[in-house]
Amino acid sequence: MLRRSHQLIPLISLAVSVLHLQPKRNMVWWEAVLSPALQVLFDKLTSGDITEFLHRSNIDEFLLEKLKITYYTNIAVLDDAEEKQYDNPAIETWLDMLKETTYEAEDILDVLATEALRCKLQAGSQNMGNQVRNWNLVHPFRSFDDSIKSKITEVVDKLEYIAKQKDLLGLKGEGGRKFRITRRMPTTPLLVESHVFGRDHDKEEIIRLLLEDDCERQTSEFSVVPVLGMGGIGKTLLAQFVFNDRRVDEFFDVKAWACVSDQFEVVRVTKAILESATHKSWETMNLELLQNSLGEKLSKKKFLIILDDLWDDNCENWHDLILPLLAGARGSKIMVTTRTEAALSSMNACAPYRLRELSDDACWSLFSRHAFPSADSRTHHQLEVIGREIGKKCRGVPLAAKSLGSLLGSKLEIDHWQEILNSNLWDLPTRRNGILPALQLSYHHLPANLKRCFAYCSLFPKDYEFDRDKLVLLWMAEGFVQQGEDNKRMEDVGVEYFNDLLSRSFFQESTADKSRYVMHDLINDLAQLVSRKMRLSCDGRLGLQKPTGFLGKARHFSYPRGRYDVYKKFESLIEVEWLRTFLALSPYETGFCYLSSKVVTDLLPRLRRLRVLSLSGYCITELPDLIGDLKNLRYLNLSHTAIKSLPQSVCTLYNLQTLMLNDCDSLEELPTDLTDLINLQYFDISRSRIPCMPLHMSRLRNLRTLPEFRVGPTSGSDIGELRDMVHLHGELTLTRLENVEDAWDARKANLTNKKHLITLTMEWSSNFELQDENVQITVLEMLQPHSKVKKVDIRWYGGTRFSSWLGDPSFSNMVFLSLTDCRRCVFLPPLAQLSSLKHLCIKGLTAVKSVGMEFYGYALSRGKPFPSLETLSFKDMLEWEDWSCPLDDKGIAAFPTLRELYIESCQNLRGKLPDHLPCLEKLVIHECKQWASPLPRLPLLRHLDIRRCGASSLGTALEMSSLLSLQISEISNFTHFNPGLMQHLTQLKRLNITDCADLNYLC
Fold first, then answer.
1. Which fold is adopted by the domain 200-354?
2. Using CA atoms, how far apart are residues 53 and 688, in angstroms rounded to an integer?
3. Structure pTM?
């Protein structure tokens, strides 16, 4: 014992020398010097279960302590090393060694923790019913003990060697930063510019070029207006403002936008132009069909097409792209943004408009907008003086100003700003790696947790659009995101990381899809630089792109799926024994892609350290049993595949956090022991053919996301298995509720305690006549959700009445409600009492004959029914005859905020609409043949669409001076327009009258 203590003395002194640097706990310094994944593993190794396992395995705890301390010793000088690496290749090499050894340590400790978990689970399964776990029943092999100790010793030796080198390189822990960055929590995830700083003149000049009449000079139906400028100068943002200018809208008949990027794919770009021009998606990737459709859309019309971020100078690509554009009218324009004049050589463009750098004042305005988003910079006079000097160093590049402004806005302290101004990184020449010093500074001063998350995004090619939530799941699988304070969900912590990077301009919203995100080209270049030798990619054309001499040490691999991916494309990965990520990225094509079976059966099982495996979108039908050897796997995405079943060995992937099986049309069964995956947090089987959930789902207590739960007919797959899933978040769809035979099973589901659910869908089978009505009434009553739920959707419910909770005022957070095909219900619930309800859809309630007092409930006595409702839809109400509103007689609006009203396929409706709809802007009435009541006065109505109704139903609608669009179709007995009424339609822009057989006079 004395000898052991003596050995610890130098280590303890080492630990003290490292740990005395630690600041207060509310800072994220700990994250800035320690790998998040390693911290969690160290914590695991000190837990009771793991400690017991270590004792049984004869693994010396002292060896693990030595590993921890040698790691701390090196990581303490990380800040100093990162700043000096650009001027010293030796320090850059030292950092690579440290990063590589850290990965090795993570892998080794992960194997150790996984083996301990396996023994724990197997011991528990062999002692079912026994309260005391017998660890001696299951134990690791002696060869495992010897191997793991040898590997830990090897890593410790490497870290000790690296520690000696840090002293020779002059790296110091105390010589690094004098400030600590706290985690930034922006009030909004994105700062929206209301105008372009310093670009008013540029904008006007470009619009002049687009609107000028140059038909005499045109050699074809269109001319090309190029905008030339360096990366990050603001070409795309300027093009967006031009594209949305009112003058452009009025001058051109058709507008379209397409991002070309560094890979000019004619099919993809043509499809993007067509979708932008038509405002709808097109499934085909057939170039001929796309070109024909685009040609028809542009035929004899003056168009503006913006091709953003053009790189390619291939004349064949350009000639193929413009073929359908020749159908347009003269005066059409194509605006091209590009970095290189060579890209314009094949398009006979006019002289390019060269976009210059911002002035110092404009650069400061942009910088201060991001540094002081909610305050005036003049209230921080000293910071403004320093900030203007920093702004000058951005050299007029908007992206640099935005990035640094966001960085410095997270800490409004003079020392912090002064250190940025005096940083040595400003002196690094841009030409060395193509990265602006300002962007390198922004990255360098990120907290360590954000650095790893950002570097991981180097797996995405330029202009790749990614989903926030799916990216967070990948970060979690890689160990970049850990449990937050107060047991905050890892997903929520990951979203905080994402929003922080978004607010610092490392990410930006996609212009095509606001729910997705992209990285600016220069930011993408930065990610490629900082990830360096840890990443492999494959562009689909040139094959595997690998860092020279470092293939075996790479950790992450991504590639865009091809239509046919052969084994040769991946065979070099056999050398990459440390690979953690195999990520197939969604291509621009739709439909199935095909992957060589040899990749699945021979290659993937060899990659034993994989944490992320995505084969989404491939036409694969099975996985080999050897997939169970990937013990470190956290993320398995088989969505949109032809998989028929999973091997039983998947149930031994105890670390698995995410399992995506959604949209697997051929998947009919799951392994029997799937619920052994106790670490599973995201599980999605929606839109597959699985008849019911795996048995004993209640064991998966860590589930956070379960988009669909299919109720089975037997015990173990019944709805009561939801009882312990208290952490469920987001969306939950309960299907096949006809299998709930005992209503008390529904009560066991305990939905009232699942306070994090936002959306709840309840669905019975469509053949409701075969189901017991009283059971369904009780089941719906027992499935009452928590009052915080925001969206509820009930389908094919077979009871004659709705439950008391539906419409209860306590559901004050509900904003959306849909009742679909509840064919036995005679009356609507008192939904007017829901104070926050904005959208209400009632469809297929064929037994409802009247909508009256029951619809409004207690809200009538308070005079405030439906205080927030904006959209109301009635559809397929075949027996509905009358709609009454008792408040009409008092002159009080029952729907004070209603903006859109849809009444469709209600053939027996005869009664009038409520008299007081003061905010209604859109009214659609279709297939209501018996309805001939005149419309009430609707002062704000802008769009009216009436089809297959009586002629008198138009009533005073034609007196509405605010009407912009009027569509009349198949109106019986509609003979003429009254000329006196037409004079009121002073704002009318669109009039469409079709199939009115009796019409004989149009004023």
1. Rossmann fold (3.40.50)
2. 40
3. 0.77
